[in-house]
Amino acid sequence: MNPPLVLVTWEDASQVDDTVWVDTATARKAEAIVFRQVGWLLEQTKQHIVLSACMGTEIMSARDRIPMGMVRSITVFDPAAGVPYKAPRRKRAS
After folding, report:
1. What is the pTM of this model?
2. What would the pLDDT profile of 22-55 be if each residue is shown by its tens digit?
3. DSSP, residue by residue, the chain
4. Domain spans, the chain
5. Topology of domain 5-14+33-76, per CATH?
């Protein structure tokens, strides 16, 4: 199994108010809660996608299922076009 590594931007369902009663005149705007999640794309259907954050040869981390109606975008990472990460050098203490 060699699934692609992706960045998924998705909007979560959320509760807008933290009280039982809300004054309609002063109710705050219902803002979207948007997440960006990186993971291995294990499954994609018209209904949902399934991601895992960590993949081994025989085991994987717990999977996340995100309904497609919540997905804003999916970006597939292309390892061949990427530049290897190089950590910045630290200055030595004198």
Report:
1. 0.76
2. 999 999 999 999 999 999 999 999 999 999 999 9
3. --PPEEEEEEEEP----SSS---TTTPPP---EEEEEEEEEEEE-SSEEEEES-B-SS-BPPEEEEEGGGEEEEEE--TTT-----PPPPPPP-
4. 5-14+33-76
5. SH3 type barrels. (2.30.30)
